[in-house]
Write a structure and sequence with these properties.
Elements (H helix, E strand, L loop, with lengths): L1 H13 L1 E9 L3 H11 L4 E5 L3 E6 L2 E6 L11 E6 L2 H10 L3 E8 L3 E7 L5 E7 L3
Parallel strand pairs: 1-4, 5-8
Antiparallel strand pairs: 1-5, 2-3, 3-4, 6-7, 7-8
Length: 129
């Protein structure tokens, strides 16, 4: 019984991969400059005047204005998962809350949720091309 529980727990943990920390900015250009010039980090890509990805090594630092931030003014953790809908449902059924139900945007399927202590999470998976 304990072995089965450990295997299920290990499988469940492997379904989630923290890949991004989403930070708020009211001036994307200034934020990009700070991370690239002050800290020497590389700009991975930019989406107009509202989103940029900075290479933080194993985790991407996402800079987002209110236009593209899932929870403007807050820090959110981006978690890649194969099943966004199941992840959102699990959070909702276990003391967390759904801010934005699972939906498709231009690049990925995502859901915005709060954990059981009010911390912002974004579950996402790339859309098939």
């Amino acid at each position: 019984m304990e072995k089965e529980r450990a295997i299920r727990k290990e499988a469940a943990l492997s379904d989630y991969d923290v890949r991004m920390v989403v930070l708020s900015t009211d001036d994307l250009e200034e934020s990009i400059r700070f991370y690239t010039e002050t800290l020497g980090m590389a700009l991975k890509f930019r989406d107009g005047a509202h989103f940029a990805a900075i290479d933080g090594g194993s985790v991407t630092i996402a800079l987002a204005t209110a236009v593209d931030h899932p929870l403007p003014g807050q820090v959110a953790v981006g978690i890649k998962t194969a099943d966004v809908d199941a992840a959102a449902q699990a959070v909702d059924e276990n003391g967390g809350g759904i801010v934005k139900q699972p939906y498709n945007d231009a690049h990925e399927r995502r859901a915005v949720v709060y954990d059981n202590k009010g911390n912002g999470l974004v579950f996402y998976t790339p859309l098939a091309k």
